[in-house]
What does this fold into?
Amino acid sequence: MGKGMTSIERPTSCRIEPVAEPEGELAEILASALTHDGKPLNIFGVLGRHPKLLKRFNLLGGFLLNKGLLPAREREVVILRVGANARAQYEFGQHTIIGKQCGLTDAEIEALTQPPSAYDWSTGDLALIALADDLHADDCVSDATWMALGTRWSDEELVELLIVAGFYRMVSGFLNSAGVELDQGVPGFPNSEETST
It folds into this structure.
C-alpha cells in the first residue's frame, strides 16, 4: 500500500445481487459462462447487470485464460498474487481451483499470500511475483523486475503478462467493491475459515 494509505474493509455481503432470471441476450451470454450446479458463477451474474459490458469482458477474460501465449501455471502465479495483493477473496478462491488444475501445489498457493522470502521460489517465479507486487505498489514494473522477466519472456509475452496482471487487478477491485460472494464450494484464502458452503 502506498505511503499514508489505509486499508478499506471489504463488504460482508453483496452490494449488487446477481441477475436471478436472465432473459434474451443476457441469457445467451450467461449460457456460455462458467457455471456451478447449472447456475452462472456469481461474478457473471453480477456483471450481468450490464450485459453489453459482460459480453466484452468475457471476450478478453476468455482469451487470457484459454488462448493466450503464457503457460497456464505461470499465468496463475500472476493472477493469484494479484488477488492476494488486492485482498480479493473471490478472485483468489476461484483461481486457487484453476491454479491447482494448472499444476500449482497447495504450498505454492498458500505462499502466494506471503512475502516471497517465505517460500523457495524459482528465479522465474520470483520475477512473476515481483511483477504483480510492483504493479500493486506503484503501477509500474521496476527496472530490476523488467530485466529479470526479460531473461525468459519475449516482448509479446511481456505485453500479455502486463495485461493479465492489469485485467485481474481490475477484476479484483470489481469483486471487492461489488461484494461478490463466493460460489458454493469455492475456498477463501488459505488458513481462512471462510469457504462458501
